Automatic annotation (TrEMBL):
Its main location: cytoplasm. It comes from the Bacteria. GO terms for biological process: L-homocysteine biosynthetic process; one-carbon metabolic process; S-adenosylmethionine cycle. It holds the Pfam family AdoHcyase_NAD. It comes from Actinocorallia herbida. PROSITE patterns: ADOHCYASE_2 (PS00739). Substrate binds at residues 54, 126, 151, 181, 185. It is an enzyme of class 3 (hydrolase). Its cofactor is NAD(+). Residues 186-347 form the S-adenosyl-L-homocysteine hydrolase NAD binding domain. Pathway: Amino-acid biosynthesis; L-homocysteine biosynthesis; L-homocysteine from S-adenosyl-L-homocysteine: step 1/1. Keywords: Cytoplasm, Hydrolase, NAD, One-carbon metabolism. NAD(+) binds at residues 152-154, 186, 215-222, 238, 273, 294-296, 341, 348. This is Adenosylhomocysteinase.
Amino acid sequence: MTDSDIADPGLAQAGVRRIDWADRAMPVLRAIRERFAVERPLDGLRIAACMHVTTETANLLRTLQAGGAQVAVAASNPLSTQDDTAAALAVSYGVSVFARAGVDMDTYYRHIHAALDLAPHIVVDDGCDLVNILHTERLDLLPGVLGGCEETTTGVLRLHQMAREDALRFPVVAVNDTATKRLFDNRYGTGQSTLDGIVRATNTLLAGKTVVIAGFGYCGRGLAERARGLGARVIVTEIDPVKALDALLQGFGVQTMEEAAAQGDVFITATGNRDVVHAGHFAVMKDGAILANSGHFDVEVDVRGLAGLAVDVQRVRPHADEYLLEDGRRLVLLCEGRLVNLAAAEGHPAAVMDMSFADQALTCAWLAAAHTGLAPGVHQVPERIDAEVARLKLASTAVEIDVLTTDQEDYLSSWRSGS
């Protein structure tokens, strides 16, 4: 077994079976892995990742290994780690894994430091914690870092802030911003897996309920569409007038959180910001209201504020804590305010992560070749990578699309042609 900190090496074979099951639904990443095994675009490079340690992530790490990289991974969320997957990676696939389900925050950060002890050339981050520690506590490693990838909206926001302050010391590619990530992972993956987590945690019937969704980005859109499809009445809260108008014209209710707080049966946050649901909102919520977060960090629901209002807290189901308030109302917080789709369910379906992780793998290979021409800052994934992933996904489903004729290409490329 590699140098790792995992819960139980004996879970490795069970993890291998689950990783293989996910791999069946990831034909694009599998094709890239086969290509990498021949081309070896990452030969001699060390890659440190901070990601959700799930079966889908395991198949990405296997792909990076096939390209020649030495890989270490730490968990990006203490509640999302699948211990059998971590064991399989460490015991059967030769990845250094620093992840155990349910660790405290001190261990969480110790694990990130352990992954960085690899002295990486490339970093793959999920939320910017790894990049943040590199720039605040592990500055000695910065000269050796060629570049990185970030796959979350929250992480990209942090990176842009670092770049504006001239604090970012190497190029980072915003994999989150590719169409094959945002349009599919965020919208379809988050939409389905978040509701899956809520239903697993509570066994509630969403039909007929009022579901309040904070944020109408790609994640919020997917949540709203799927909640409506299950028969819920959907209210959207937003700070962006364009997104709010989009929600309104799609037929969703649009209100402030102050207005919606008294009406909602289920609240889902997907904003990337803190205190989106706070004590003032808790004060008017219905008895039995369910609070769930689908944003990356556990700051969107003010958990401390909720605890301060409670006279008692009971764990009523494995991922559901019931907060009893002085007036007798009970509010149910899921997964301690952490990502409900990964803590109470299994995260996005493998078929969706196939595209996101194909973007990651191809971007790592591109960084390995192109890093010398990239200045420190936030960069976009080359359009050809995005298009290639989409083409490979279509091919895997036996779907064909039209191709421009020569006349059509000439028409689109010429300004001389009139109407």
